[in-house]
Write a structure and sequence with these properties.
Elements: E1 3-9, E2 12-18, E3 23-27, H1 41-55, H2 71-80, E4 89-90, H3 91-98, H4 102-110, E5 123-124, H5 139-152
Parallel strand pairs: 4-5
Antiparallel strand pairs: 1-2, 2-3
Length: about 150
């Protein structure tokens, strides 16, 4: 059974989805107004860790993730988790490290089910921020910039 919890963040509400044992996803942008929150131990723990993150950025995530992606996607997501807080990598740098294309890296970032925990926001273009959650402007980009700024503190 999937449970979910809606939490408040500095940039709006987000939804956490989990099974009994694993985090299934984090949705930063598509909150359903009529959603009823049904928390679990996983979502409660991640809620605490995210609240701590929003006070002081960290990489101390203890929640097991339910990766549902190709081997290639999982390889990219694991690489992203190694980017230190306060640092960024370009799509090209990630692509070079993984022997693939920048476009492929961007596509995997767009498909990331665990934003923040798997820090796709730390991947930027050579010319600026790049995209976030499949967008290149709007609220999504404001959130990406907020996350990067927060991690610089």
């Amino acid at each position: 059974m999937t449970t979910y919890t809606i939490i408040d963040t500095p940039f709006g509400q987000i939804t956490l989805f989990a099974s009994e044992y694993y985090l299934q996803g984090i949705d930063l942008f598509n909150i359903q107004a009529d959603t009823i929150s049904q928390s679990s131990q996983i979502t409660q723990q991640l809620s605490r860790e995210l609240k701590d993150f929003f006070i002081q950025a960290h990489n101390a995530w203890s929640i097991p993730l339910m990766y549902a992606g190709t081997d290639f996607q999982q390889t990219v997501w694991q690489y992203l988790r190694m980017i230190p807080i306060g640092e960024t990598r370009t799509y090209s740098e990630v692509a070079s490290a993984l022997n693939t294309s920048a476009r492929a890296v961007g596509n995997v970032c767009r498909a990331n089910p665990f934003p923040i925990v798997v820090p796709c926001h730390r991947v930027v273009s050579k010319a600026g921020l790049g995209g976030f959650a499949g967008k290149i402007e709007g609220h999504e980009m404001t959130v990406k910039q907020w996350l990067l700024d927060h991690e610089q503190k």
